[in-house]
Amino acid sequence: MRVGVLTGGGDCPGLNAVIRAIVRKGTQEYDNEFIGFRDGWRGPLEGAVRPLDIPSVRGILPRGGTILGSSRTNPFKVDDGVRRVKETLAEFEVDALVAIGGEDTLGVAAKLWAEHDVRCVGVPKTIDNDLNATDYTFGFDTAVNIATEAIDRLHTTAESHMRVLVVEVMGRHAGWIALHAGLAGGANVILIPEQRFDVDQVCEWVRTRFRTHYAPIVVVAEGAMPKEGELIVKEDELDAFGHVRLSGVGDWLAKEIQKRTGKEARTSVLGHIQRGGTPSAFDRWLATRFGLHAIEAVNEGDFGQMVALRGTDIVRVPLSEATAKLKTVDPKLYAEASVFFG
Amino acid sequence: MRVGVLTGGGDCPGLNAVIRAIVRKGTQEYDNEFIGFRDGWRGPLEGAVRPLDIPSVRGILPRGGTILGSSRTNPFKVDDGVRRVKETLAEFEVDALVAIGGEDTLGVAAKLWAEHDVRCVGVPKTIDNDLNATDYTFGFDTAVNIATEAIDRLHTTAESHMRVLVVEVMGRHAGWIALHAGLAGGANVILIPEQRFDVDQVCEWVRTRFRTHYAPIVVVAEGAMPKEGELIVKEDELDAFGHVRLSGVGDWLAKEIQKRTGKEARTSVLGHIQRGGTPSAFDRWLATRFGLHAIEAVNEGDFGQMVALRGTDIVRVPLSEATAKLKTVDPKLYAEASVFFG
Amino acid sequence: MRVGVLTGGGDCPGLNAVIRAIVRKGTQEYDNEFIGFRDGWRGPLEGAVRPLDIPSVRGILPRGGTILGSSRTNPFKVDDGVRRVKETLAEFEVDALVAIGGEDTLGVAAKLWAEHDVRCVGVPKTIDNDLNATDYTFGFDTAVNIATEAIDRLHTTAESHMRVLVVEVMGRHAGWIALHAGLAGGANVILIPEQRFDVDQVCEWVRTRFRTHYAPIVVVAEGAMPKEGELIVKEDELDAFGHVRLSGVGDWLAKEIQKRTGKEARTSVLGHIQRGGTPSAFDRWLATRFGLHAIEAVNEGDFGQMVALRGTDIVRVPLSEATAKLKTVDPKLYAEASVFFG
Amino acid sequence: MRVGVLTGGGDCPGLNAVIRAIVRKGTQEYDNEFIGFRDGWRGPLEGAVRPLDIPSVRGILPRGGTILGSSRTNPFKVDDGVRRVKETLAEFEVDALVAIGGEDTLGVAAKLWAEHDVRCVGVPKTIDNDLNATDYTFGFDTAVNIATEAIDRLHTTAESHMRVLVVEVMGRHAGWIALHAGLAGGANVILIPEQRFDVDQVCEWVRTRFRTHYAPIVVVAEGAMPKEGELIVKEDELDAFGHVRLSGVGDWLAKEIQKRTGKEARTSVLGHIQRGGTPSAFDRWLATRFGLHAIEAVNEGDFGQMVALRGTDIVRVPLSEATAKLKTVDPKLYAEASVFFG
């Protein structure tokens, strides 16, 4: 059996660990051959390939990024895309595909399998942990560790210097990184996209904290929004790519807190630092097991499935189900954390 | 309600996070008062206490160790122990106890509740992750991260210098740390207590690895034992405390590999480094949630229970059940990992 | 002898290590007594003190921040300030002062000694490493390590995802952090305050880098300025504290690069993360030795001096000299690094 | 000009950084060509080479180990060795050699230049920092950071669990790592090879420490020896390679402390973990600058020289001088640190 592998979407620590596990187990236990497609769905679309065998995956386990490259190319949005993908698969005699990616990448896999008989197995990937079908996605634990370590560093300043310290972390639609890192880091305020925040309430928590002679640390997800409907970013401040990061909520909030409380505020914006570098042990474990189970599914002919974590088990769920709904932060969990606010 | 808190057994990152969560939520949401018992069950036994309120738990979240101290004191092994414990609780007007500890500490709590009506709630703690009733215990993820980072460091030497590198990690009865860190670190051999190892097989893997021009890394749990029944430690090499660490399996194995393969071998013995220092984000999250749910159980009067992790939920299980059986590594999981051996 | 100790200015990892070394050696070898002044020169000015003895410095070595607190209070800018300082010193029977701080804090010490006979010894502190009289200041190595680790994490993204990654690091007047972290992190462009940059040249390096199929990483000091004299920050964007951070050069540059090259750019702004947390081993070594030598100078009656590092030796230099000139990046060093640009 | 590069001796973080800097600057500024010799002096001896150009050094800066491999081969100890080296150099038209290594590797270079006109420039490398001609060698700061982090982790256990914690670090002939990491880590006892230790004195410090209700941490260099002349290792316990590590001083000392004080003791033996993994920022900076200045010396025809650090400057010193004398810990420095003992 000849298996194609591709990785799509944003960077996420653990991609290489998945690839390595697939190739090791596939080669040794099932005698599979592999083809690496470059840059996500661009690979099958344009016939961009690279060799993929055991020597080529040696040493990649602890490395962030992906040796296959990535892109956001979607064959369904390209003229004749599906036909071209199928031609490439035929040309390289690819029997099945493992697609590693987030909602978009797996959505393509789901549709290719459901509507075009392309034999696909999916491996979920999102640093934001917002996929409904799995307890956790790899990359998330690494991001949370990085953000937590950043918050830790701010604490010593908060103990001795009276400043408001704002940390902006990733999470455009779901606040998982903010919630976990904020709780693990002992933040005094955690703001997530799921719940619009009230700047005056934030300022109240800030003032409460100062009364303990210890400065406040505010963790804010990049997608968090103020209640009052104030526009953080005007239309014309969006860049060509529609991203707002360039004048983000962290800076805006720091300015507002300064203005309203009269206390100096400082911002750290972690940005892509959360997406790169070596994966945490948990993420390597999860990514490796995802890879082992994905290639097992391929060799059992169980297509249209995605691997997922349930408790300590790796299970399979239909790709269609997996990409159906965003997993946002449960209000009960957020309420549980709020005992530490202020 | 006045609640006593104690921590027993070996060190484990996350103990302070549990204590802090209990005190924060108990004080703020239930108006509980707290008493800290010193050094595990020695506290209630001898009336050794310390104040425990919100100011006293400030800043302890990221700190390893336990502000309450610890010991292996068991009131059931002390003359009149139970009566003395009950007297202390009466003296300090303690309505309920939260016991944070491993099999021994929780075993005492289970028996005190079942047989002596002492109102206890348990929080499981073992760095070895060998408690049956919970998916994970806090401290484990930190230990695995530390061991993985150590293995990572050995890889660069393995790439450029032809030496066998042996790492001895914790795990006297269960191989969880060795398995997770070995898999996450890309070890070439992983040896666990659950399965006696064959030194010749290990040497064969070592030789295989050298043929890839890359030196082997061998991860061995401190409790792993060779098949051939060779005594690693003679009776008289046991120290006064019955511990064998002082001439452990790592050094023994390195010597054997040198002797049998003629290749230079080096050992690293991580020891207590795996037990200390700041907890990982995952462990802080888990420990904090354990604390929040334990004090909730106390205030709901649900005694004789232990908090546990199931998937992403915190649940309650009877203390008696929790301490009944050691959770060892499933042979299937070990087999899954063996694709990376050699 | 009774010695007062104070810490002034911004946060800097290693302050506690200095305090601990002073107290340990002073108490044990010279039988000194100590008084901790709170919040820099505010302590002597307002008589704000705290006890300072061996138990109170236990465990603080690895902790960032300062147990004495800090401020930017300057007694020379306060009515009757010098007299009030001298009264406090008389009241608490303080024989000598150790002032730990940057240009401002040490400038006060220099003047108090030179003009008012207040017996002072200085310990230099600046995360920016821009003090002329010493090879290095503590805190700098920690900041460089943090920034380097951040750049490391971006590399894996740069290898697999075609984005321009901009990192803004500290350094308002001197580019030492940017230069060292940029070189250590393998940045493709390093921009420092000492040399105005040409955005078109930066874009040229960015394009060159993309041709190697590897995305560029741009390290920019917060005080770096474009050549063309474009105002990055308009007057009215300065906050009440005169700081420009809230819409800094990193974001500005990322926007310009996007506009001019058409490539997506992302920014990370490390901010105060560089100032906090546990000091690196080098900084603990340096801070500890500074403390040991400062208290030695006090007990030898060698006032008006500052400790400094020369090679591997701790020496003394006059306070007046030390604070006279900013140490900026030597153009030759910057040129040496430029072999890695593009 | 065609330049050969080789790395010899034990592993040391920063080797790749040196290689990269040499190749980048040599290629870009001097139009040099490069040849990589494999495995130290085995390369020139046996004609074992690999290509070495800018693409081949891309991405290696943060990686431990050496892409050129290493060995302890000495052409002067091999029949006809020098003639064979010269033949290889002639065959590959190598005009000059950069040898990166410790005493042995550089000793060969010194002799080849002095006695056989082989044009060599040296770059000093020793994790132990025991080279006399330079303030620091790269790799040392990394090793100290790793050992310090390990000690940090033990502190939380020392705060809450009453055990003696012994850490064995590298340093067979010089105690630099033990001294720096012990001081930076706040160890209570530091034992170095330069000064035989008195076990009873160590036990006295251990007892003193316990009286502060805080357990002692003992840092011992692998080459440290007890005063009483007790043989730690009997002749027949030396392995085939003459190494004693396999039953080292750390375990021996822990046993003795247990026996004499009745307190439980635990050992961590860091071993090769100190030699591998990514270099610290300082070591990358130093290694990079060493590389830049070495290739400059080559192109200026200044042979028989070694680059060295003096303060913040890179200077050149004769190879003969550099390898003449071991730099051991100055008794004054050790005395300075002893204020923290006990």
UniProtKB/TrEMBL annotation, chains A, B, C, D:
Coiled coil: none
Keyword Cytoplasm in record: yes
Matches recorded under Gene3D superfamilies: 3.40.50.450, Phosphofructokinase domain
Catalytic activity as recorded in UniProt: beta-D-fructose 6-phosphate + diphosphate = beta-D-fructose 1,6-bisphosphate + phosphate + H(+)
The UniProt record lists the keyword Kinase: yes
Enzyme active site: D128 (proton acceptor)
Binding site for diphosphate: G10
Pfam families on file: PFK (PF00365)
Subunit and partners: Homodimer or homotetramer.
Protein name: Pyrophosphate--fructose 6-phosphate 1-phosphotransferase
Native source organism of the sequence: Streptantibioticus parmotrematis
Recorded name of the encoding gene: pfp
